[in-house]
Specification:
By secondary structure, this protein is of the alpha/beta class. Helices cover 41% and strands 16% of the residues. It contains 10 helices and 11 strands. The protein has a 6-stranded parallel beta sheet with strand order 1-11-8-7-5-6. A 3-stranded parallel beta sheet has the order 3-2-4, sandwiched between helices. The structure holds NADP nicotinamide-adenine-dinucleotide phosphate. NADP nicotinamide-adenine-dinucleotide phosphate (NAP) binds next to helix 10.
Length: 282
Amino acid sequence: MAARLIDGKAVGAAVRERVREEVAELVAAGERPPALATVLVGEDPASQIYIRNKRKACEEAGIHSLHQGLPADTSEDELLDLVVGLGLDDEVDGILVQLPVPAQIDPDRIVAAIDPAKDVDGLTPVNAGLLAHGMPGLVPCTPSGVMELLRHEGVELEGAEAVVVGRSKLVGVPIARLLLGANATVTICHSRSRDLAAVCSRADVLVAAVGVPRMLGADAVKPGATVIDVGMNRGEDGVCGDVDTDAVLDVAAAITPVPGGVGPMTIAMLLANTLAAARARV
Ligand code: NAP
């Protein structure tokens, strides 16, 4: 039987609608709307599209969106000053610095300067540490979107074998930590892992966050597994994931399509994080 396609567009839309309703309630109770400050250095076309989409989603949810566009030759100190200033600004609840930044800027220094209470990307060492310790904090958007999809699908995580391919700070590691928090037995694979397909094929829940087009095929998937494909690889024939979806359809029980799976969850969880950050500051 062909695998069920997990509809990230629908789940993401439901999260966005819930945020919109909660923002409206906040405003009706006399609070100002939550505010997200986005910062983009340079004119990378893909980053410009991401920022535009994030700002549009904010507006649709009733979240105030402020934007700072800086020239590509901005120095690290100038960007640091801006980020620290946004941290001190009472009218700002969330800060998002679009990555990557130009080569003259150390992204780790910039991220570390973001006020953790406004770190809606969940990337500061403080929020990463809270997540590592299983304590409440702001969680990176794509990983929390993956968990939302698994919750929505009713996937049993307790005691399940979960394999995450990829160990980035942004995606792989936080997803693995969240799965561990849900009591799955978690294995993290990376570029040096041996027998990748054999390890993956043990997984009840397989998460691919690699960045290599259609790298995981049917031999990497356990019959009946849930497959979450975080990959977003742009090629001549459009966008594809890290999983060879067509090859896996007859093996998996459910799989996220690319596009339309994990992607729409990322912006939805950004809105949810901005609302949570605003609530925590009220
Ligand atoms: P990244 O920082 O480049 O990390 C990639 C990870 O994959 C690394 O840990 C790397 O291992 C591992 N890897 C690379 N080649 C491998 C191989 N042949 N076998 C096994 N592991 C391998 O990428 P990322 O930021 O985590 O993003 C991963 C993918 O998710 C990309 O396609 C990205 O576009 C996509 N993404 C999508 C969303 C969304 O909203 N849908 C959001 C973020 C990212 P090493 O650590 O050993 O180098």
